[in-house]
Amino acid sequence: QTIIYGLRIGPEDGYLETVLQQIRDAGFAGVEFAQSFENIHTSENRPIASLEELLAIAARYDLVVTGLAGGRVGDRVKAIESVPSWEGREIPYVYIDNWKPAYANCTEEAFKLAIHPHVYKNCDRLSKVEALLEKHPGLTWMPDIAHLAIVGDDVEKALTAWPDRMIAVHLKDWDPSSGSSYHRYARGFVG
Q1: How far apart are the first and last CA of the chain?
Q2: How far apart are CA 185 and CA 51, in angstroms?
Q3: Is pLDDT at 103 greater than 90 in this prediction?
Q4: What does the H/E/C string look like for the chain?
Q5: From CA 15, how far away is CA 65, in angstroms rounded?
Q6: How far, in Å, CA of 113 to CA of 99, rounded?
Q7: In terms of C-beta distances under 8 Å and separation of at least 24 residues, what long-range contacts does 16-22 make, across chains too?
Q8: CA torsion 13→19→94→149, rounded to 10°?
Q9: pLDDT band per the 50, 70, 90 thresholds, residue 46
Q10: Labelling 5: which of 34, 72, 129, 189 has CA 20 to 30 A away?
């Protein structure tokens, strides 16, 4: 799978359909969206109307929507719950990077919450993720090698920890000379 990063998919990107075509042509089978629905524009130059529409457009390119990371958590959960039937389709995970006690009620739902350790948030270290995974059996997780490296965690250990609960991995070509900035990457591309 891959991630569509950035705040918006619109005319400057060739719209959603062009982006999905490029993702498929690159050999990926699934995609995590970092944008909220109102920031994902179709070739008709309008935001997608629903998760159901996004799933249908992705399916035309033989892609699965694997995760939802953009917008409010509650809006993403409602979008998943609004799909009339998930029969024969994978339910996307709901990315979270900041643990809130209210999320404990969501870890046994039909959808999967996926905690992403994120520098400068309350769940920034592998030890904090592990404590949550132990406490909430329905919670999944996705290590991000840049964020874990910035906080000084052992990235190799993280990549082998909790493999049965690991739903995705975020890879970045991060360079330590960037200091604690996780959005400045090294030269080159890992992927």
Answers
A1: 10
A2: 31
A3: no
A4: CEEECCCCECHHHCHHHHHHHHHHHCCCCEEEECCCHHHEECCCCCECCCHHHHHHHHHHCCCEEEEECCCCHHHHHHHHHHCCCCCCCCCCEEEECCCCHHHHHHCCCCCEEEECCCCCCCCCCHHHHHHHHHHCCCCEECCEHHHHHHCCCCHHHHHHCCHHHECCCECCCECHHHCCCCCCECCCCCC
A5: 16
A6: 10
A7: 16/40, 16/41, 16/42, 16/43, 16/48, 16/54, 16/57, 17/42, 17/43, 17/57, 17/61, 18/43, 20/57, 20/58, 20/60, 20/61, 20/63, 21/61
A8: -80
A9: very high
A10: 129
Beta bridge partners of 40: 9
- Note the Cα 96 to chain centre separation in Å: 8
Two tokens, residue 55: 């799933």
List pLDDT tens digits, range 167-191.
Answer: 999 887 666 766 555 554 444 444 4
* Sheet (strand 30-33) strand order: 2-4, 30-33, 64-68, 93-96, 112-115, 140-141
Tell me the per-residue pLDDT of 50-94, one tens digit each, with 9 for 90 and over: 999 999 999 999 999 999 999 999 999 999 999 999 999 989 999
| Under 8 Å between Cβ of 182 and 150 | yes
On the question of pLDDT at 5 being above 70, the answer is no
